[in-house]
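Intended use. Records like the one below are meant for learning the mapping from a protein sequence to its folded structure. Do not use them to infer anything beyond what is encoded.
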Amino acid sequence: MESTLLVTISRDELKELIQSCLRDVLDSAKKSFQSSQENDNKLLTIEDVQKLFSVSKCTIHEWKKLGLLPFHKLNRRLYFKQSDVLNALRPSHKNNSPIKKTIL
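Structure written out for the chain above:
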């Protein structure tokens, strides 16, 4: 059984308590947002994308040539930003993603 405890505190103490709680919540939300941004900027190799889509390397290179999958070159290797890969899967405003159509 819960018991209720009434405590008398001043307006300034209440204000400080609310500010402290809000600061904690905002700091937690900020950390969560920053970690999601770091994941979006993560670079994937062709092998990573191949596993993600369950397709061959040739298919990934074809999507790259068609402009369906943006890529970056670094030291003669190809990389794909995770956010770009996930955006390629999202349907556009009029029709489904070209990559989804190719897979299906």
